[in-house]
Design goal:
There is one protein chain. The chain is an alpha+beta fold. It has 2 domains: about 30-70 and about 140-175; about 70-135, OB fold (Dihydrolipoamide Acetyltransferase, E2P) (Beta Barrel). The protein has helices spanning about 10-15, 30-70, 140-195, and strands spanning about 70-75, 95-100, 105-115, 125-130, 135. A 5-stranded antiparallel β-sheet has the order 3-2-1-4-5. A hairpin with a 5-residue loop joins strand 2 and strand 3. This is Integral membrane protein.
Length: about 200
């Protein structure tokens, strides 16, 4: 087709849907392939949306539970934490030893990340879980929403990729079967055809 020629849109639609119409050249495998393509597109679209939404909702619930279980409390810095001047350090937080009091009144010590530049005895904010143990800061509402959306999108894309891969394998097997069938038919017809033209 030259650069100036254009294909009729109706003709293109007919070419794409030829496996669905009655046709002397259409084989059973062509109809199966058409159903496979339709199933793959449907499952990728609907299934991807469902998998993504369910995964995002589950991740959102996990982040919400973490926000409810983790609490910020005041702790006392045990050691001096110098300002970091290394260019290799990308965070302004360092690991340091702290002491805090739990809800039952017991005193504990542990290591967690704190802002650099504090002297020993300074008050710092740390995060604890339901048992009073040190834990990481929970994601904020905005961070939790963004992470849940990212996890849901990743799950939807992974599901779509697996579905596409399964469809591609099924179509590849159909192609192999068609090639074998064409080979068998050529073995029958080829010798007779050669005699007629020779």
């Amino acid at each position: 087709m030259s650069g100036g020629e254009r294909t009729n849109p109706k003709l293109r639609t007919k070419q794409r849907l030829w496996r669905w119409r009655s046709n002397a050249l259409r084989r059973r495998d062509d109809v199966i392939e058409a159903w496979i393509v339709l199933a793959v597109v449907t499952v990728m679209t609907l299934g991807g949306v469902v998998v993504g939404a369910v995964t995002a909702h589950t991740a959102d619930n996990v982040f919400a539970r973490q926000q409810a279980e983790k609490h910020s409390i005041r702790a006392v810095l045990v050691d001096y934490v110098p300002l970091t001047v290394s260019r290799a350090v990308t965070s302004d937080q360092v690991r340091a030893k702290v002491r805090w009091t739990t809800a039952d009144g017991s005193t504990r010590t542990g290591t967690t990340r704190v802002d650099a530049g504090y002297k020993a005895g300074s008050d710092v904010v740390v995060w604890t879980d339901g048992q009073g143990d040190l834990t990481s800061r929970p994601a904020s509402s905005g961070e939790a929403t963004a992470r849940a959306a990212l996890i849901g999108t990743t799950a939807a894309l992974a599901f779509g990729g697996m579905t596409f891969g399964a469809g591609a394998i099924a179509r590849w097997r159909l192609d192999r079967r068609r090639i074998e069938q064409w080979g068998r038919e050529w073995d029958l017809v080829g010798p007779r055809w050669g005699h007629k033209t020779g």
